[in-house]
């Protein structure tokens, strides 16, 4: 409640400036009897002139921050007319100092310097009038007046510099906030792209296995019930695996902290399980490992696993009924090379033009500085070869 009231009060510049003028009005009210009592002899003032002079000096202060230069010009002009009339200073003449501070604090340095010159000139004229041009008597009051004016001007400069510094801090904080939001959006988009690739690999592979097994079960249900039952069991197992992986991926979207509770990310240790699953689906697959296995990051292992999974899915879908595949995984000093070769239809395989598997493979490899070559073999079949650097410094 207090904070909102303070914000409301700060937004009303006119009311705030009027409140700052009230102490001067109060002091002028207290000194009014003495001024008016000796007005004719000492101040050369009548009541109407006194009231008009006070209003001319203080009323513009209500808009001093909205129009600082215009306000100071009006106040300086009223004070100059007061000097021309031979009237001595009153408490309301402090409005000149208030105007000087406002111009210095809220305008450019040049305008502040000009306002300083006007205020110093006013001090010179006032001391000259009071001490009738006596330089010896003028020296002390003029130095005092000038010191006060310079102090007000320096205070205005300090406030202008401080306000500019705070404004720069606010702009920097706002810019950093925008950059942080942009980084969050980029990270979110990258995560969504990763999840989209994961979903494509999971759904494409498992659905392909399910379709192949369902076709086999439909073909063998009358002639070989045992084989049909085995195909249905494979469909159930594959479906449960797909659901588990999809729950894990969707869990990332709901709550990143709970994402790992569903299932671990697959890696190179799960290639044997993948090969067995594909064999059960009807595609003979052999796996050969060469070289000395090196420690790979989870992201690199996942990328290799998904590339092999996508290549086997394509072989299962497009290779034909008598196709077989071979996986060669070679651990090198600087990179891991994986090749998936099948002897299926190759270039003769039908293509519906809706697949994104090859694009996803290349994107996964490019994240770690690797590359993927994929295409039909000259003697028939299809080959996918991926090379993934094992260290950041070995990226191509």
What does this molecule look like?
It catalyses: ATP + protein L-histidine = ADP + protein N-phospho-L-histidine. By secondary structure, the protein is an alpha+beta fold. Helices cover 66% and strands 9% of the residues. The longest helix has 86 residues, at 135-220. It starts with a helix and ends in a 7-residue tail after the last strand. Residues 256-262 have low confidence and may be disordered.
Shape call: rod-shaped
Secondary-structure element order, N to C: HHHHHHHHHHEHEEHEE
Largest sheet, strands/sense/barrel: 5 strands, mixed
Helix content: 55-70%
DSSP strand (E) fraction? 5-15%
Identify the strand order in the major beta sheet: 1-2-3-5-4
CA-based gyration radius:
43 Å
Give me the secondary-structure category. Answer: alpha+beta
Low-confidence stretches: 256-262
Distance between the termini: 61 Å
Count of alpha/pi helices: 12
| Strands, total number | 5
The residue-averaged pLDDT reads 79
Short characterization:
The chain is built from twelve helices and five strands. With 396 residues, it is of the alpha+beta class.
Write the layout of secondary structure elements.
Elements: H1 2-11, H2 13-37, H3 39-43, H4 47-58, H5 68-84, H6 95-106, H7 109-130, H8 135-220, H9 225-254, H10 271-281, E1 285-291, H11 298-318, E2 325-331, E3 335-342, H12 357-367, E4 371-376, E5 382-389
Parallel strand pairs: 1-2
Antiparallel strand pairs: 2-3, 3-5, 4-5
């Amino acid at each position: 409640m207090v904070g909102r009231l303070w914000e409301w009060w700060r937004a009303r510049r006119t009311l705030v400036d009027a409140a700052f003028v009230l102490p001067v009005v109060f002091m002028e009210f207290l000194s009014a009897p003495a001024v008016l009592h000796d007005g004719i002899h000492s101040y050369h003032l009548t009541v109407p002139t006194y009231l008009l002079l006070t209003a001319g000096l203080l009323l513009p202060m209500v808009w001093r921050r909205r129009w600082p230069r215009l306000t100071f010009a009006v106040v300086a002009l009223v004070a100059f007319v007061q000097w021309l009339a031979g009237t001595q200073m009153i408490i309301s003449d402090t409005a000149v100092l208030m105007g000087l501070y406002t111009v210095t604090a809220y305008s450019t340095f040049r305008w502040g310097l000009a306002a300083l010159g006007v205020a110093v000139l006013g001090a010179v004229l006032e001391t000259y009038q009071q001490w009738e041009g006596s330089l010896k008597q003028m020296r002390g009051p003029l130095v005092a007046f000038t010191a006060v004016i310079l102090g007000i001007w320096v205070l205005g400069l300090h406030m202008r510099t401080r306000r500019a510094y705070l404004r720069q801090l606010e702009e920097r904080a706002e810019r950093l906030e925008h950059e942080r939001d942009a980084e969050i959006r980029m990270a979110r988009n990258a995560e969504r792209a990763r999840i989209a690739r994961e979903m494509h690999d999971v759904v494409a592979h498992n659905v392909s296995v399910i379709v192949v097994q369902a076709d086999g079960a439909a073909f063998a249900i009358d002639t070989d019930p045992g084989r049909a039952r085995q195909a249905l069991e494979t469909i159930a197992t594959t479906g449960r695996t797909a659901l588990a992986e999809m729950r894990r991926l969707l869990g990332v979207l709901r709550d990143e902290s709970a994402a790992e509770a569903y299932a671990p990310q697959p890696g190179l240790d799960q290639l044997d399980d993948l090969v067995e699953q594909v064999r059960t689906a009807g595609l003979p697959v052999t796996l050969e490992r060469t070289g000395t296995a090196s420690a790979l990051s989870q992201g690199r292992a996942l990328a290799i696993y998904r590339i092999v999974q996508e290549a086997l899915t394509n072989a299962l879908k497009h290779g034909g009924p008598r196709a077989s595949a071979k996986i060669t995984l070679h651990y090198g000093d600087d990179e891991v090379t994986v090749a998936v070769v099948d002897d299926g239809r190759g270039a003769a395989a039908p293509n519906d033009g809706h697949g994104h598997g090859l694009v996803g493979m290349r994107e996964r490899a490019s994240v770690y500085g690797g590359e993927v070559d994929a295409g039909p073999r000259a003697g028939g079949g299809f080959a996918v070869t991926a090379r993934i650097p094992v260290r950041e410094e070995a990226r191509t």
